Amino acid sequence: AKELGRDNFQFYAPEFNATAQEKFLLQEELRNALARAEFTLLYQPQVDLRSGNVFAAEALIRWNHPSLGLIAPMKFIPMAEETGLIVPIGDWVLHEACRQNKAWQDAGLPPLVVCVNVSARQFKEKNLISRVVDALTNSGLDVKYLELEVTESLIMQNVEMAVATMNQLQSLGVQISIDDFGTGYSSLSALKTFPVARLKIDKSFINDLATDENDQAVASAVISLGQKLNLRVIAEGVETDDQIAFLRKNNCDEMQGYHFSKPVSAHGIARLLYKEQGG
Ligand code: C2E
Ligand code: CA
Ligand code: CA
Ligand code: CA
């Protein structure tokens, strides 16, 4: 997927070594960013390891700041969580991802599942379910093409509450993945009660997969756990052939990472799907 290169924005703003005042200013700007339409979504393809098909794409937010340029989520999501701004921002992400996915389908491209990250604060909102319903209704997207990614550590903060919310989402027909799996210490007995479709092996176990025996042990354990619980397993952060060889050998279902594609614009996904279709 070399020609996708054009869409890879690499010019992130340098670290803000933010003083209290700078932080305050940035917070003010974050508050205005939604109204000024400064957010954008990139999408990273997810690939079936057996067929090689792209079946899904994860929506990843970027803040296109007027003077600082494109800002990565790690630089503003924590602040958005602290201030509660993550709730309207997350709502925008949900609506935009559903709208875009429907637009790809309306353009005649092969249907994809769009995966949306849900933050802790957003997940705990009382009206999360109705916000999800709104996003589906407004976009006209069939619920089977929406998946939510919830981190393992978020679930573990309050398992009972999380399972109740996930059950409601599941009864709507929304699929759920557990993101950053392996970092959040879920017990096996808890895991089997989670109404989820998929585990995402955290990047930190994939980075040195070719050489680190501990990471190999964790990755293969997660894959066989997934098989036993009838959950699909995806590896994130896959960059090398060696990592893919290990994942294939251990029967991992799916992968996502720079090896196949970095996150790209909506247009980049359309081109990729068009080519896959034989266009
Ligand atoms: P995440 O959900 O674990 O997303 C995966 C991150 O890994 C993305 O970083 C992606 O660009 C990066 N990545 C994917 N493949 C590779 C690879 O092969 N190598 C390396 N080194 N990195 C890879 P990104 O886009 O900077 O997002 C970082 C985090 O910000 C996400 O981690 C997620 O926690 C959060 N985030 C992103 N978008 C949203 C959003 O719309 N809502 C919320 N609540 N959080 C978001
Ligand atoms: Ca994710
Ligand atoms: Ca992740
Ligand atoms: Ca992560």
UniProtKB/TrEMBL annotation:
Sequence ranges assigned to domain EAL in this UniProt record: 23-277
Protein name from the UniProt record: EAL domain-containing protein
Organism: Mesorhizobium salmacidum
Lineage, top ranks: Bacteria, Pseudomonadati, Pseudomonadota, Alphaproteobacteria, Hyphomicrobiales
Included stretch of the parent chain: 607 to 885 of 890
